[in-house]
Design brief:
The complex is a heterodimer of chains A (about 650) and B (about 550). Chain A is α+β, with helices and mostly antiparallel strands and about 650 residues long. Chain A is built from 22 helices and 14 strands. Helices cover about 35% and strands about 10% of the residues of chain A. In chain A, a hairpin with a 6-residue loop joins strand 10 and strand 11. The chains are: A alpha+beta (about 650), B alpha+beta (about 550). Chain B: It comes from Vicugna pacos.
Chain lengths: ~650, ~550
């Protein structure tokens, strides 16, 4: 690869993020697709793999006596601090990575070289796993009210929409084309979700080009058609997901929002979700809080509040809840838009669908949901997640927020989802990894032009193949609470929203619960299944034996057969093996005689580590697989701080003497 | 005294509102000596609603027209509203509840009248005291002995009759050491960590005073501790006050161990919040949790502002430090603050839970609470007189025990398979510590309990909890014995608000109940298949 200035640097130190005194010595390799750090320690040879596409920023810091520090921040929230002995090597690595992390053409992305050894047929089947046509049929479409429109064939009307769209039967091509001309980027109102129980629907579009007084007859007819497609209600909600001020500012640019006077029977509603720039800064601030060294509880909580992140998450959830209630309780259809209708609109429509329809809370249904509301409706994956070098102002964690909303709901409704947290984390990983073609480009049209399906693999097939890892053992599909729409508390309050350390601190295993309830229960389930099978087999055998023995008189004494006890999770109790952190907050208090003592325990972690994923990148990176992490390094009360003991004045209790003695 | 003097109105018609999640209840309201009863009408007597008056924390009455409203805020953080017909009846009932819920006398309290079916008086009272723990220590080392020097509570009124002390120290020396320690709480063994042959001790502060007094027997006692431990062991004194506070305590006769006097012992200061500030922290947190309308930002600042989670973090860190000192450094640890009855017990009991696998079982945990809190003289009656809703100015109230339960909950969240008891057990202990039909948490010390004859005249909570019907609620179905120490993370990202307690009555219970049922179902399914297998294989003849 022409961009790699130096393929290998030796004697590089990987600094522990928390206690800078700990560092692993090893060799750094640059390959066409990954940065790899291999530790020298002969017994472990621990490897850390980072995909170039995961690299968010690279920072070269001032050279010190020990070498030249290089800080690599990743999009999956990993943070790597390397110290490279020679300044020149560091510069070479830096320049190489800057280029490698910012590809300029799609062809440079990993998915075009990634080859999981599947034949052509298997690859094609993988792409057929998620079928949106089938999804609309599942909703009960087409029917008397909705039909498949070919108006966007060859992307003639709107190039960021899919070709296959459902619109009200009464909306003629003339109305649709007219309406599209009155909408930003011609994103006219189209069906996102149809609620079979009462004919109400969720439609989506971009903002109208209303300015201060413009109107459009076809657009008004379009909204009326949507209303008529729901015989159960005489009005529709129009939900503008922007803060009112933002929407009003847009009027000066000839855009804006619907005037209730011009549209018959609409109820217009603002739901203030901030724009992509606010969200980008908010995430940045929250990550800074996560990076704080030994913060106090208040530092952390104030920082979290100051970032506004959870407030934004709540705003998105609240919008989704509003729409889901309008549809299920009021039986009214809802048209959702923001500015262009591809960020906030996608978030809100998918949250509402997830609340309404249990299908989207299954593994496959969730994939369908992302395919429908995000991929097909032209969410700009390339711009938002910076797959190709582009405008940094376009980058924003829009789908990350949606994924977190799902996690927040999973925490509130532990039995309502077929999948577990790991599934969400792996999806987030693949949105940025560019290992598969699904999340490439900004629209369906671009993907088609690039022949993505012929040249890359589908991540859905990959995730589906490993679905056993993603199941939630607590899922109760048939329970009254999880059937149908999720019943949310009347007043969604702030307490239910939690900081998601499983995502944002996922590479710091020491911060996570040390035992996984999910894995344990899955192992138990698997084992009882095995035992049941064994039982059945033994029963059959017993029957046979009894038949044979009809002729025999003597039954020999029984021999206890060794039960295959706890094979599935005999290791799970070892997963508690951890070492104490630095609780002393005072470097001097325990002049440790025991750095080696912890090692036997960490070794346990290594051996018991269940390599869950068959995916090399995830297994090297993501939380449940990186078992080699040393847990004994967190300092809860500030190693840097002055020792709190007897700060000098109380002479009679200054016991440094005893330490050295 | 007759209860009837305090009951002004026998009964009234009322409607009870129990929060947004439960349907209202209508019927006849009735005040008895210990209970508030609501009987929904003659046809439905089994659906009697009952509230222990002792659990009422604060009461608020309002009258309008010819009816009134009483809001009862309970010690378990529940808020109940009673709409009562008749102004006079409302006022009378309110006054009766006020009088009856704040009775100070122990021996007229409900535990002395509670006689449940299926339980025998006197059961389970003797199965936890220090004697039992000493048997275990004696198996592990012979450096310690059980002393009955406090048989008549003369050495230390807040200690039990028997305590575990170094074998090398005689009862006279104990008496002298007791005189040198506040409240007579001389250093006693709290826990013996067999693998490292080190011990955890607790005491109160030494009475050094402004003259920096010393006590040879007290010093000898601590020397004997080191001598009885592994050879070359050092000691750490974890003082749960700041160095500044400890120094100031000299002015009032207290103080802390002088380094020159206690060879081999090094002092560490880990200030833990106690007393009124801790109570206020609790009150503010509960207030914040009651405000359902607040914005996200407001909520996070209030959560930070009330500092409860900061106290959790500090308590866990200090306990980890003590445990680490023993397990990793092979050092003996003495923990004390001032009186040695609050933050001291918090640290010693948590350290044991971290180190000792047997204290994480159902029986072991009960024993730990009995030995390290009840017998160790945590003044439950004073500390738990009021919960978070009382308008009265806090005198001796402090939620130290609740802080302990919260820390245990955090440990259970980080190690979900390692505790045999579940959240239900912790909630039950919280409820019973503040108001209970059982006698276990009555009084402030063993001496007081003896005077009141608690053991013979009330039922033990442990026998109540150990009934089979309670087990599903209290046990952790995921438990797998774990022989290792549990080192929790004390980073802010790892600590969470205990929603199960602080939001118990405000969030809908169904989702977590459904999850709990499912966990039980998975685990019992497995036990069923496992249980049935050997029967088949046992009947399989050898061919």
């Amino acid at each position: 690869m022409e961009h790699i200035r130096t393929p290998k640097v030796e004697n590089v130190r990987l600094v522990d993020r928390i206690s800078s005194k700990k560092a692993a010595l090893g060799t750094l390799y640059l390959t066409a697709t990954h940065v790899i750090f291999v530790e020298n320690a002969p017994d472990t040879r621990k490897e850390t793999w980072i995909l170039h596409s995961q690299i968010s920023t690279i920072e070269k810091q001032a050279t010190t006596a020990t070498g030249c520090p290089l800080l690599i921040r990743c999009k999956n929230f990993q943070l790597l601090q390397l110290i490279i002995p020679q300044e020149r090597d560091c510069h070479d690595v830096y320049l190489s990575l800057v280029r490698l992390a910012r590809p300029v053409k799609y062809e440079e992305l990993y998915c075009f070289s990634f080859n999981p050894k599947l034949d052509k047929e298997e690859r094609e089947q993988g792409w057929m796993l998620i079928d949106l046509g089938e999804e609309y049929r599942r909703m009960g479409l087409p029917n008397n009210y909705w039909q498949l429109s070919d108006v966007n064939r060859d992307y003639r009307v709107c190039d960021s929409y899919p070709t296959d769209l459902y619109v009200p039967r009464s909306a003629t091509a003339h109305i649709i084309v007219g309406s599209s001309k009155f909408r930003s980027r011609r994103r006219f109102p189209a069906l996102s979700y149809y609620y079979r129980e009462n004919h109400a629907s969720i439609c989506r579009s971009s903002q109208p080009l209303s300015g201060f007084s413009a109107r459009c007859l076809e657009d008004e007819q379009m909204l009326q058609a949507i209303r008529k497609a729901n015989p159960g209600s005489d009005f529709i909600y129009v939900v503008d997901t922007r803060p009112k001020l933002n929407a009003m500012a847009n009027r000066a640019a000839g855009k804006g929002y619907e005037n209730e006077d011009n549209y018959s029977n609409i109820k217009f509603q603002f739901i203030g979700i901030e724009n992509i720039h606010v969200m980008r800064n908010s995430l940045q601030k929250m990550l800074e809080v996560c990076e704080l060294k030994s913060p106090s509880m208040s530092d952390f909580l104030w920082g979290l509040e100051n970032s506004g992140w959870l407030r934004h998450i709540k705003a998105i959830l609240d919008a989704g809840i509003f729409i889901a209630k309008a549809v299920s309780e009021e039986g009214a259809s809802v048209l959702v838009h923001c500015s262009d209708g591809w960020d906030r609109t996608a978030q809100v429509c998918s949250v509402a669908s997830l609340l309404l329809d249990p299908h989207y809370r299954t593994l496959k249904g969730f994939m369908v949901l992302i395919e429908k509301d995000w991929i097909s409706f032209g969410h700009k994956f390339n711009h938002r997640y910076g797959n190709l070098d582009g405008d940094p102002k376009e980058i924003s964690p829009v789908i990350d927020q949606f994924i977190e909303c799902v996690w927040q709901l999973m925490e509130q409704f532990p039995c309502a989802f077929e999948f577990n947290e790991r599934f969400l984390i792996h999806i987030q990983h693949h949105i940025y990894s560019c290992q598969f073609g699904n999340f490439l480009c900004n629209s369906q049209k671009e993907r088609q032009e690039l022949k993505i399906q012929e040249r890359t693999h589908s991540s859905w097939a990959h995730l589906w193949k490993n679905r056993a890892d993603y199941l939630n053992p607590l899922f109760r599909a048939d329970h009254s609470q999880t059937r149908g729409a999720l019943r949310l508390p009347t007043a969604p309050c702030s307490f239910t929203h939690k900081f998601w350390s499983g995502m944002y601190n996922r590479f710091e295993k020491g911060l996570q619960p040390r035992q996984s309830v999910t894995d344990y229960l899955m192992a138990v389930k698997e084992e009882s299944q095995q035992l049941e099978e064994e039982l059945a087999a033994l029963g059959e055998r017993l029957e046979k034996i009894q038949k044979v023995q009809l002729n025999r008189t003597e039954v020999k004494s029984n021999k206890q057969c060794e039960p295959s006890k706890h094979s599935g999770f005999s290791t799970s109790d070892n997963s508690t093996a951890n070492t104490p952190q630095d609780y002393s907050g005072n470097v001097k208090s325990f002049p440790s005689r025991s750095p080696s003592q912890g090692d036997e325990d960490s070794a346990l972690i290594l051996t018991q580590d269940n390599l869950k994923s068959s995916d090399p990148d995830l297994s090297a990176n993501s939380d449940q697989e990186s078992g080699v992490e040393d847990l004994s390094c967190r300092s809860p009360s500030g190693g840097e701080r002055a020792p709190s003991e007897d700060s000098g004045k109380d002479r009679d209790s200054d016991e440094a003497v005893f330490l050295t003695a | 005294m007759e209860f009837s003097e305090l009951i002004r109105t026998g009964q009234a018609q009322a409607e009870l509102l129990r929060g947004p999640e439960a349907p209202p209840l209508r019927g006849t309201l009735c005040v008895t000596g210990h209970h508030l009863l609501l009987s929904p009408g003659p046809q439905a007597t089994p659906d009697l609603w009952l509230l222990l008056l002792r659990s009422v924390d604060s009461i608020e009455k309002r009258v309008a027209g010819d009816s009134g409203t009483i809001t009862l805020r309970c010690k378990d953080l529940r808020v109940l509203q009673l709409d009562i017909e008749g102004v006079e009846a409302t006022l009378n009932i309110a006054r009766s509840i006020e009088a009856l819920s704040s009775l100070e006398s122990v021996i007229t309290s409900f535990p002395f009248f509670y006689r449940p079916k299926g339980l025998r008086l006197g059961d389970a009272w003797h199965f936890h005291p220090p004697e039992r723990y000493y048997k275990r220590v004696a198996r592990e080392t012979n450096a310690w002995r059980l002393s009955e020097a406090n048989e008549d509570f003369s050495l230390c009124p807040s200690y039990p009759r028997a305590v575990i002390v170094p074998r090398a120290v005689d009862d006279d020396a104990l008496a002298r050491s007791a005189r040198f320690r506040q409240g007579g709480r001389f250093p006693v063994l709290s826990y013996h960590h067999a693998p490292s042959r080190t011990v955890l001790l607790r005491s109160s502060q030494p009475l050094t005073g402004p003259q920096k007094r010393r006590c040879a027997e007290d010093e000898a006692l601590l020397r004997a501790v080191l001598a009885g431990s592994r050879p070359g062991a050092r000691g750490f004194i974890v003082d749960t006050r700041s160095a500044q506070t400890a120094k100031q305590a000299r002015m009032t006769g207290g103080g802390t161990e002088a380094k020159a006097a206690y060879l081999g012992w090094k002092r560490l200061h880990r200030p833990l919040e106690r007393g009124r500030p801790l109570q206020e922290s609790f009150v503010h947190l509960v207030e914040a949790c009651g405000d359902l309308e607040q914005s996200m930002d407001h909520w996070l600042s209030r959560l930070a502002g009330c500092r409860w989670l900061a106290h959790v973090k500090e308590a866990l860190s200090t306990a980890c430090l003590a445990a680490q000192g023993m397990e990793r450094e092979g050092a003996c640890i003495l923990v004390h603050g001032a009186e040695g009855t609050d933050s001291t017990l918090l640290v010693t009991s948590l350290a044991q839970l971290i180190l000792d696998p047997s204290s994480r079982t159902m029986a072991g945990f009960q024993e730990l609470v009995e030995r390290e809190w009840i017998q160790a003289g945590h003044p439950f009656q004073l500390r738990c007189a009021h919960s978070a809703f009382s308008h009265a100015h806090p005198k001796h109230e402090a939620p130290t025990f609740l802080l302990f339960l919260d820390c245990v909950w955090q440990l259970g969240r980080q190690f979900p398979l390692s505790l045999e008891f579940g959240e239900g057990m912790l909630l039950a202990l919280f409820d019973h510590a503040y108001a209970s039909p059982f006698g276990t948490f009555l009084c402030n010390s063993e001496q007081e309990r003896c005077l009141c004859e608690v053991r013979t005249r009330t039922h033990s909570l442990w026998s109540g909890l150990n009934q089979l019907k309670e087990q599903r609620k209290l046990r952790n179905p995921l438990y797998v014995p774990n022989p290792l120490a549990l080192w929790p993370s004390v980073e802010p990202q790892s600590l969470r608000l205990w929603q199960g307690l602080f939001l118990r009555w405000t969030r809908p219970p169904e989702p977590s109940e459904a999850a709990w049922e499912k966990v039980w179902q998975i685990v019992t399914d497995q036990e069923k298949t496992e249980g049935s297998q050997p029967t088949v294989s046992a009947s399989e003849p050898q061919l």
